[in-house]
UniProtKB/TrEMBL annotation:
Domain Inosine/uridine-preferring nucleoside hydrolase positions: 4-301
Protein name per UniProt: Nucleoside hydrolase
This protein's record includes keyword Hydrolase: yes
SUPFAM superfamilies hit by this protein: Nucleoside hydrolase
Species in which this protein is naturally found: Mangrovicoccus algicola
InterPro entries per record: I/U_nuclsd_hydro_CS (IPR015910), Inosine/uridine_hydrolase_dom (IPR001910), IUNH (IPR023186), Ribo_hydro-like (IPR036452)
Keywords: Glycosidase, Hydrolase
């Protein structure tokens, strides 16, 4: 299986991504989960990550707390979407598994130095603060990363948190600037993809019909956040963003896109955090990211339902 570190700010969709990874041991080995401030503050995201591991019956997974704020900007949260806890929709018990004492950034650095070069994939599902901090503090690890597969940004969909920016990038654009410029092989799951994998009553029912605690939780979570998104977009379902990252590791053929140049805007107050994606190859700048654009939504939900059903 592929060794990964999940860097995350749970968040209901982050939680589903964690469940998908833990339900796929043949393809994925989770070396650790690093929490970052994002959808809700760090005190919540690290606790939520542990709640989700316990929901999956995996209290052996190590969870680390990382950055409690972006590199330069003031913290930005998204309680309007995710609720006060970040996992509103169902109340999970307080976790009994411990939070690791080591800082998330130190864990990322130590792991990349300890594992063979090119064998660890980073899976950021939130603001990129932890990853950028690790790269800045220990430049020797950058060349050892197998790949970064992240959820963030947008091109045709433009933005969901400002008119021109997606939440994960806008929350810490300076960190995103570091990561996109690092020279690591990058796969990006932008809103262009995630807005094609919408929840629906039938898809939610399939989770609930699993008849398990994880299935029930996923159905409750999607039922919670889709109210917000459906009102916002006037759509019949809501994007289930972050599991796209994990689904790509298991079934890459579910997604297609282009290897293009993507730069992060960090200067303009108007377009701060925009992923300037050169989809048409106009700029002459060298490609640095596989930027996805299409997804097989039925295949995605089938995979999610099947794997979460094993937990
Ligand atoms: C991203 O922002 C968060 O609200 C979600 O968890 C996802 O990672 C979507 O823009
Ligand atoms: Ca997230």
């Amino acid at each position: 299986p592929r060794k990964i570190i999940i860097d995350t700010d749970p968040g209901q969709d982050d939680a589903v991504a964690i469940l998908l990874a833990l339900g796929s041991p043949a393809e994925i080995e989770v070396l650790g989960i690093t929490a970052v401030a994002g959808n809700v503050p760090l005190s919540r995201t690290q606790e939520n990550a542990r709640k989700v591991c316990e929901l999956a019956g995996r209290s052996d997974i190590r969870v680390f707390a990382g950055a409690d704020r972006p590199l330069l900007l003031p913290p930005r949260t998204a309680e309007n979407v995710h609720g006060k806890t970040g996992l509103d929709g169902i109340e999970l018990p307080a976790p009994s598994m411990p939070l690791q004492e080591q800082h998330a950034v130190d864990f990322i650095i130590e792991t990349l130095r300890a594992e063979a070069p090119g064998t660890v994939t980073l899976c950021p599902l939130g603001p990129l603060t932890n990853i950028a901090t690790a790269f800045r503090r220990a430049p020797d690890i950058v060349g050892r990363v197998q790949e970064i597969v992240l959820m963030g940004g947008a091109y045709f969909e433009v933005g969901n948190t400002s008119p021109t920016a997606e939440f994960n990038i806008l929350a810490d654009p300076h960190a995103a600037h570091v990561v996109f410029g690092a020279g690591v092989p990058l796969v990006v799951m932008p809103l262009d993809v995630t807005h094609k994998v919408l929840t629906s009553p039938a898809r939610n029912r399939a989770f609930r019909d699993l008849g398990t605690a994880p299935g029930e939780a996923v159905a409750a979570w999607t039922g919670f956040f889709e109210r917000w998104d459906m009102a916002k977009y006037g759509s019949e379902g809501a994007p289930l963003h972050d599991p796209c990252v994990i689904a790509y590791l298991i079934r890459p053929e579910l997604f297609s896109g282009r290897h293009i140049n993507v730069e992060i805007e960090i200067a303009s107050p108007l377009t701060m955090g925009m992923t300037v994606a050169d989809w048409w190859g106009i700029s002459g700048r060298a490609p640095n990211a596989m930027f996805m654009g299409q997804a097989d939504a039925d295949g995605y939900y089938d995979l999610l339902t099947q794997r979460i059903g094993t937990l």
